[in-house]
Amino acid sequence: xxxxxxxxxxxxxxxxxxxxxxxxxVSCSGVISQVEQKFxxxxxxxxxxxx
Length: 51
Description:
This protein is an alpha+beta fold. 43% of the residues lie in helices and 27% in strands.
């Protein structure tokens, strides 16, 4: 089952749009980087500032 999931995941890309009114702190930036490293198919877009 795992080899099949790996093949399927190779063709799936994901985007997370993260919005914060405040600037992202160093700790949060590190977590965002860790997510992108652990899940190569995931792209985290960060937008800051009041809307």
